Amino acid sequence: MRESVAVKRSTEPVAKSSADDIVRSFVKSVDSGKRSDKPYRHWLIRDCLPGDTVDDVITLPFEAPSLDGISGRRELHNNTRKYFDVDNRKLFPVCEAVAQAFQDKRIRSHIEKVFGTNLKGTYLRIEFAQDIDGFWLEPHTDLGVKAFTLLLYLSKDPSHHALGTDIYDGDKRHFGRSPFASNAAMIFVPSNNTYHGFEKRPIKGVRTSLIINYVTNEWRAREQLSFPEAPIA
Q1: Domain 2-224, what fold?
Q2: pLDDT tens digit string along 81-108?
Q3: What are the boundaries of each domain within the chain?
Q4: How far apart are alpha carbons 168 and 151 in whole angstroms?
Q5: I want to staple 16 with a disulfide (CB 3.0 to 4.6 A). Which of 52, 92, 122, 137 is the partner?
């Protein structure tokens, strides 16, 4: 009996900001973003989500998983990765609000217009990433089944200011690094030259972010999707 009450309470609509609030905030942030064409076309935006949405996401009760001495690719730890999937949308109102916002036609159409990508037939995938000391990522492009990539930084630790995404040129030579600030993001449309990664460096605490993608129907891990039965129309 106690267990059923707890579940009921966790599914009550208590997110501080609604999906509509998130839509308005994100569209505004995109419109004030800055585009760079070197070494490939990408955008830097700020104030992506309402502030209380950031707080709600940061406080989700997911423990940062251990790396067990292994890193370089996120898929090496698929069994411990967390998503705003069907189950977590039901359990956590903020997961539902964020997922509904990025499924909303207003955000989807704005992404297509500003970033020049076609999302028709794709599916929303939102990963809640928690990176700890020892984490690194080899340069990769996201090209293939991803039609859009949004790397949204969340953690507020001042020491994380140098923990942005590393950017590489077409020969995988280090070009620069996106600034890391809570509620700021890097955006790009995956292509054959959109190399990015994370050079190994000290991480104090947990580097928290959302990785938001729209993926094609070829994406095999359907359990990761927010709306696995609802492709973008």
Answers
A1: Jelly Rolls (2.60.120)
A2: 999 999 999 999 999 999 999 999 999 9
A3: 2-224
A4: 16
A5: 52
Contact (CB, 8 A) for 54 and 154: yes
Q: Tokens 């990176």 correspond to what residue?
A: 131
The secondary structure of the chain as a DSSP string is -HHHHHHHHHTSS--SS-HHHHHHHHHHHHHT-EEE-SSS-EEEE---S-HHHHHHHHT-S-PPPP-TT--BSGGGGGGG-EE--HHHHHH-HHHHHHHHHHHSHHHHHHHHHHH----TT-EEEEEEEEE-TT--EEEE--TTTEEEEEEEE----GGGGG---EEE-TT--EEEEPPP-TT-EEEE---TT--EEE------S-EEEEEEEEE-TT---GGGBSSTT----
Task: Give the Cα separation of 188 and 42 in Å (integer).
Answer: 5
Question: pLDDT by residue (tens digit) across 23-61?
Answer: 999 999 999 999 999 999 999 999 999 999 999 999 999
Residue 2 Cα to chain centre, angstroms: 34
